[in-house]
Write a structure and sequence with these properties.
It is a single chain. The protein is built from six helices and 15 strands. It is α/β, with parallel strands linked by helices and 330 residues long. The strands form three sheets. The chain has a ten-stranded mixed sheet, with helices on both faces. The chain has a three-stranded mixed sheet with strand order 2-11-12. A two-stranded antiparallel sheet has the order 6-7. The protein is globular. The two termini are 31 Å apart.
């Protein structure tokens, strides 16, 4: 990836619509079951390939190793922001980077960057135990919120991390997990990005102790995690609780963050390279809440005609990093 100079390996112990999902992954992890980060395919506007970088590694131990990418120019005297990016059901840390291309943009902005792997279920699919809707279908009870918090703690113990700029982002199951992290560790997470995910259906199930800036990105024709909410069901009948739609998700977080009002602003964001026209490539509309408590912010980027896994535009990584950089802890 562009600007990466080192690698550290760290180990840590509507009435609801139903999306039918295959019971097992039948191809390589990049063709994951859902809610997943499926392979994006060819892009009409390809993201630039990252340049090679020198790497080194250190193993700290544990059975769930994590690779931390360190930007060129990292200076222990200047604490760096940290971005944790989480894959979808049946995906992997390697695959989510191949789909979203956030690593190069993060490195260029001086971020420490990590894409952990979830736990593997009996079907061979990696997952995150996120909310009551997604995606511990077998009831294993893995405490991934505590696991990811311990990952952040270990990275912080090894590198100079700015405690005001710790961020989490995810797609699908990873997006549900990002909300779970914001709920359980609002004192740690400054801002989060959800691509095709949702928060808890019951607002009382989440009790953030401080405001967290939230960006929800969702396609209106997502047939895996529905824009208007629903229930996720694997082929074979495994299902969990219902999840709220995109609008309900951001409205709930606006309440948590003490925001006053929302409006569609005169801005558009280019999320999916295959949607839009040459004259108007930025297809996603932006709904932004105002009057939030310090540290709070809520936005919804609605992608008209967008599906579950976008073919991200070249503008997408920078737009996501822009949102995160604009919302450190106060």
């Amino acid at each position: 990836m562009v600007g990466l100079s080192a690698v550290l390996v760290i180990g840590c112990s509507n009435g609801p619509a139903v999306s039918q999902l295959p019971a097992t992954a039948t191809t390589a992890p990049t063709a994951a079951t859902a809610p997943s980060a499926a392979s994006s395919g060819a892009s009409a506007e390809p993201v630039a390939s990252p340049t090679p970088s020198r790497t080194a590694s250190v193993t700290v131990g544990g059975d769930r190793p994590v690779t931390v990418h360190v930007p060129t120019g990292y200076d222990p005297a200047r604490p760096a922001p940290l971005l944790v990016v989480l894959h979808g059901y049946g995906g992997s840390g390697h695959q989510i980077e191949a789909d979203l291309h956030l690593g190069a943009a993060a490195a260029q902005r001086g971020f420490l960057y990590v894409t952990p792997d979830g736990t593997t279920d009996a079907q061979g699919n990696e997952f995150w135990d996120a909310t009551d809707a997604c995606c511990d279908f077998e009831g294993s009870g893995i405490d991934d919120a505590t696991y990811l918090e311990s990952v952040i703690t270990q990275i912080h113990a090894t590198f100079a991390v700015d405690p005001r700029r710790i961020y989490v982002a995810g797609h699908s199951n990873g997006a549900f997990m990002s909300y779970a992290m914001a709920c359980a560790h609002a004192d740690t997470i400054a801002a989060m990005v959800s691509l095709a995910g949702a928060t808890f259906k019951d607002p009382a199930a989440c009790a953030p102790t401080s405001p967290v800036a939230v960006l929800q990105i969702h396609g209106t024709t997502d047939d895996t995690v529905y824009f208007d909410g629903g229930t996720i069901t694997l082929a074979g009948g495994h299902s969990m609780g219902a999840y709220p739609g995109a609008r309900a998700t951001v409205a709930t977080w606006a309440t948590y963050d003490g925001c006053a009002s929302s409006s569609v602003v005169a801005e558009h964001v280019d999320v999916d390279a295959l949607i839009g026209t040459p004259d108007a490539p930025a297809e996603a509309t932006v709904t932004r809440w105002a009057g939030c408590r310090p540290g709070g912010a809520v936005e919804l980027w609605t992608v008209p005609g967008g599906g579950h896994t976008p073919t991200v535009s070249s503008a997408f990584p920078g737009a996501v990093i822009d949102f995160l950089e604009a919302h450190p802890k106060p």
